[in-house]
Design brief:
The complex is a heterotrimer. Chain B is built from 10 helices and no strands. By secondary structure, chain B is mostly helical. Chain C has one domain: MetI-like (MetI-like fold, Orthogonal Bundle). The longest helix of chain C is centred in the middle third of the chain and has 38 residues. The radius of gyration of chain C is 24 Å and the shape is globular. The chains are: A alpha/beta, B mainly alpha, C mainly alpha. Bound molecules: adenosine-5'-triphosphate (ATP) and magnesium ion (MG). Magnesium ion (MG) binds next to helix 1 of chain A. The site of magnesium ion has 3 residues of chain A, from helix 1.
């Protein structure tokens, strides 16, 4: 951890105030990403991966409230920055791409104009030159015949092409940090690999830090330098990829790895981990939200969780870890 | 029986949850009472004119004032409830029979039936609805009965579409399949298995369109169709009062107009509430 | 684009055929004696018979229909009994009055309803959101003729701000030379400011009445579709790419949210054209609605039939325009064509 962190998130807590109760979606989430590094965040559906990303980007739904923590990007705390400051930072310093790229693009605006919008906003590009620069961006993300494609609408393009356009939009202002939220879900396998290669290429070329959110532990193992495992709104373990696979310390992580011997299965298909995520609206959530599923539960587990600092080389949140 | 109890419990819950629906229900009861017993309750004869007291503003004796012939506006407004209520009920029942049956047939049998019903609905929808209703009343003759028919016809597409969609979904449903396998004829299936299931949804539709039916009928009588003086009916009473608005006698038009508005408001709220009861999924 | 228009035109043809058949059937195939309608209530038996032959009502239905189509293709809608004037000419003369009123009414309600719906959607739970809810539930319960009368009472009788509700112009003014038939536009063309103000004054209350009437469906739809669009993925990603909130709300969200609103306009026009008749009666507006109402009272059927047909054709045409407008905004429609 000699490299300066690009993003340092500490004790991030988020809740959604809904009609059916308060959803404690994130509790004390901490992690760090260094410049040029790729951090994967893995976890079951509903574990809070997207909410983490939205909170950092400042684009939570109106019902969502950050109730504590900091997210330092350079000298700026993204969680307490004003709206005006955030809209300067978003897209310029920290950008994001989404799953289901077709839905993430404006359906009635040509993709060239959507890229141009961002260029005009962030890239100091004069309005007149923007369309031309947008075509260059399309070329940079490997879209064939970019000048013709710039005039196309999202519905006229394949999912993979749309994701390339999303990437072009995200990197238009050369951000120092990219969050990719399941960027390849819904794409076919070959396109998945191509998109992932494109992201790696772009980040290694520019020293951009990447947070890669996925269900897929195997994919995370291939692509990430470090992995953070989330469960029910907690980061329960975070370590370098190899370290995590060879010496998992949290029982949940160990179960996950054991359940993916060939590292090919998808977390959603795992039936072998007993129980399900607890209902995050409960008022009697135990301090360790895994304890009700955990075979290694002890009496200490009802104490507040021990947490190593966000920058620890191998962070684990457990009273009775393996090893 | 338990299903009924559950519905009643749910209805209670909806009303408790949403006091507006309870309020609308109370209003509805008042309207029904006025429609049923209005003529026996009113303080004055709604048709007795007395030119000495003509055009008097509201007072203790005449709560809503008197009109140009000295008739008591309050009594007329109350007595009119029956006719307006009758027109609305009759027209939604009629369109329920026409549109509901045609739609169920279209949805269940498909093919030509579907195409013909669809074409009829489309053709009706090609007209501005009130204008079509005007044309129908003008052609059929200027009577209350024809107002009912015209109001029913312009609502036909709405009912036919809802019923068609519901019947279409149920055509392949398990219980229909079971009835078919046990040797029931198609007509029996429609009558005893499909219709009873489509009914609650159409009932919601009926309460949702009651308000529109009253407005439509009152609009027609406002322009002089259907109801004739000296009948007490809200639309025509507003029309009679309209001439006196410009000289400041506001009460003749205001009270029947307000009664009309409250009735429509009540039916709209009630329709929304009923939809919540019948179809809890769509609760907003 | 040309393709789209052509396709929509073709789709409108069955509607038009249906409309013509229905207006024809309204007079001929319904119970009662059509000749008696056309002859009027006071006619003698011979007069009725004469009319029957004159109108071809003694011929088989199909022959009558062909003849009706033939008349229509010459723009012949028959003649009014009371005035003896050709109906088509009278409708043509009165149409601009109705059109000016209806369009201004729509403009008024769009100008209020769209911002109201947007503000309600962007600030859920705020005062304006509640105001929007009240307007949409109360708005659908207001009988349009009743609104008109209340406005007259308040703004003409009580406050004296509005002129007497008696038509398009005060008697001291004479209409501007006809170009479009819209007094507002024609008076501007004629460079007559006083006339413009005078006709605007006459228009305000009836247009406001129509506006209030169609406020509810437009505001409700704008709010609902704006809410849906604001929580959609592409708005989220537009915000994530740091576009200014103005760009996000206006260029990204609003234009998408308008698509369902444009579709609802079809229904709004259906109500508006009907309400127009009532408003014309309340404000003694010399449009085609009051022409039809006068004819109805006199049991003069040809103008009523002409009126129904004209309204229906205008409605079909308006729906066509709405479809084309939709296609202009939504590129997906263009591809489909
Ligand atoms: N708008 C919201 N209102 C209420 N609860 C929400 C909202 N958005 C998210 N949540 C809750 O927050 C929790 C985390 O959701 P999140 O979308 O971050 O999961 P995820 O890990 O991204 O799952 P997936 O893999 O399915 O994308 C879930 O329990 C979810 O119910
Ligand atoms: Mg997610």
């Amino acid at each position: 951890m000699s490299v300066a962190p690009a993003l340092l998130v500490q004790n991030l807590s988020v809740e959604f105030r809904t009609r059916s109760g308060v959803v404690k979606a994130l509790e004390s989430v901490s992690f760090t990403v260094a410049k040029g590094e790729t951090l994967a965040i893995v976890g079951e559906s509903g574990s809070g991966k997207s909410v983490t990303a939205y909170a950092v980007m400042g684009i939570l739904d109106p019902a969502g409230h950050v109730t504590g923590g900091t997210a330092m990007l350079g000298g700026l705390d993204l969680l307490s920055a004003s709206n005006a400051a955030m809209s300067e930072v978003r897209g310029r310093e920290i950008a994001m791409i989404f799953q289901n790229p077709r839905a993430a693009l404006n359906p009635i605006r040509s993709v060239g104009r959507q890229i141009a919008d961002v260029l005009i906003r962030h890239g100091n590009v004069p309005r007149k030159e923007a369309p031309e620069r947008a075509v260059e961006m399309l070329r940079a993300v490997g879209i064939p015949d970019p000048s013709r494609r710039a005039k196309a609408y999202p519905f006229e393009m394949s999912g993979g092409m749309c994701q390339r356009v999303m990437i072009a939009i995200a990197i238009a202002a050369k951000p120092s940090m990219l969050i990719a939220d399941e960027p390849t879900t819904g794409l076919d396998v070959t396109t998945q690999a191509v998109i992932m290669d494109l992201i790696s290429e772009l980040s290694s070329g520019t020293g951009m830090a990447t947070i890669f959110i996925t269900h897929d532990l195997a994919l995370a193992a291939q692509r990430a330098d470090r992995i953070a495992v989330m469960h029910a709104g907690h980061v329960i373990e975070c370590a370098a990829t190899r370290e995590l696979f060879e010496r998992p310390r949290h029982p949940y992580t160990a179960e996950l790895i054991a359940a993916t011997p060939d590292r090919a299965a998808n977390l959603d298909e795992l039936a072998s981990i007993p129980g399900a995520l607890p209902d995050l609206r409960r008022t009697d959530l135990p301090p360790c939200r895994y304890s009700e599923r955990c075979p290694r539960k002890m009496t200490e587990c009802d104490q507040p969780l021990p947490r190593s600092p966000a920058v620890a080389a191998h962070m684990v949140a457990c009273w009775n870890p393996l090893r | 029986m338990t299903a009924l109890a559950a519905t009643v419990r749910h209805a209670r819950y909806v009303m408790g949850e949403n006091p507006v629906t309870g309020f609308a229900f109370a209003l509805f009861v008042l309207i029904v009472i006025a429609a049923a017993f209005g003529p026996y309750l009113v303080p004055h004869d709604p048709f007795a004119s007395d030119t000495i007291v003509a055009l008097k503003p509201p007072s203790l004796r005449h709560w809503f004032g008197t009109d140009q012939l000295g008739r008591d506006v309050f009594s007329r407004v109350i007595v009119a409830t029956r006719l307006d209520f009758f027109i609305a009920i009759a027209s939604v029942v009629l369109v329920f029979l026409m549109g509901g049956l045609a739609g169920v047939a279209a949805g269940y049998f498909g093919g030509w039936t579907d195409r013909i019903v669809g074409r009829i609905a489309d053709t009706i929808m090609a007209f501005p609805l009130f204008v079509l209703a005007m044309g129908i009343v003008a052609a059929l003759g200027n009577t209350v009965q024809n107002i009912v028919i015209a109001t029913a016809i312009v609502n036909f597409p709405l009912y036919a579409r809802v019923a068609r969609a519901e019947a279409n979904v149920r055509r392949e449903a398990g219980f229909v399949e079971a009835a078919r396998l046990s040797g029931n004829s198609e007509f029996r299936i429609v009558g005893f298995h499909v219709l009873p299931n489509v009914f609650p949804i159409l009932a919601v539709q009926m309460s949702l369109t009651m308000g529109y039916a009253i407005l439509n009928a009152a609009g027609l009588s406002f322009i002089g169709l259907g109801v004739r003086p000296p009948t007490a009916e809200w639309g025509i009473m507003v029309a009679e009062g309209a001439a006196f608005i410009v000289s400041g006698e506001w009460w003749i038009a205001l009270f029947p107009g307000a009664a009309l508005m409250i009735a429509v408001f009540c039916f709209n709220l009630l329709g929304d509430g009923l939809r919540d009861i019948v179809d809890p999924r769509r609760r907003t | 684009m040309g393709n789209l228009i052509l396709k929509r035109l073709l789709l409108a043809v069955p509607s038009l055929i249906g409309v013509v058949i229905v207006t024809f059937l309204l007079t001929r195939a319904l119970p009662g004696d059509p000749a008696a309608y056309f002859a009027g209530p006071a006619a003698t038996a011979e007069a009725v018979e004469e009319i029957r032959v004159k109108l071809g009502l003694d011929q088989p239905l199909i022959v009558q229909f062909v003849r009706y189509i033939g008349d229509l293709s010459h723009g012949d809608l028959g003649s009014s009994l009371t005035t003896g004037q050709p109906v088509a000419a009278e409708i043509k003369r009165r149409l601009p009055a109705s059109a000016e009123l209806t369009l201004l009414g729509l403009l008024v309600s769009m100008a209020i309803a769209v911002p109201l719906g947007i503000l309600a959607a962007t600030q859920p739970g705020s005062l304006i959101d509640h105001a929007c809810r009240v307007v949409t539930t109360a708005g659908v319960s207001l009988p349009v003729f009743f609104t008109g009368l209340i406005l007259i009472y308040v703004f003409y009788y009580k406050l004296g701000w509005a002129p007497a509700p008696l038509g398009r112009l005060d008697i001291f003014f004479s209409p501007p030379p006809q170009v479009t038939g819209f007094y507002l536009i024609d008076s501007l063309i004629a460079g007559n400011g006083a006339l413009f103000v005078a006709s605007l004054k006459q228009l305000i209350l009836p247009a406001l009445t129509l506006g209030i009437f169609s406020l509810a469906p437009i505001a409700r739809m704008t709010r609902a579709s704006m809410l849906a669009v604001l929580s959609s993925d592409f708005v989220r990603s537009a915000r994530a790419s740091g576009l200014s909130s103005f760009t996000v709300v206006v260029t990204y969200a609003f234009r998408n949210a308008m698509l369902p609103v444009i579709t609802t306009l079809g229904m709004v026009f259906s109500f508006l054209l009907g309400a127009n008749v009532l408003v014309e009666k309340v404000f003694a507006w010399p449009g085609i609605g009051s022409f039809a109402v006068e004819a109805l009272i006199a049991s003069d059927f040809a103008p009523v039939q002409g009126f129904v047909l004209t309204m229906a054709i205008m409605y079909v045409a308006l729906n066509l325009i709405i479809d084309i407008l939709y296609g202009l905004i939504d590129p997906r429609m263009r591809l489909e064509a």
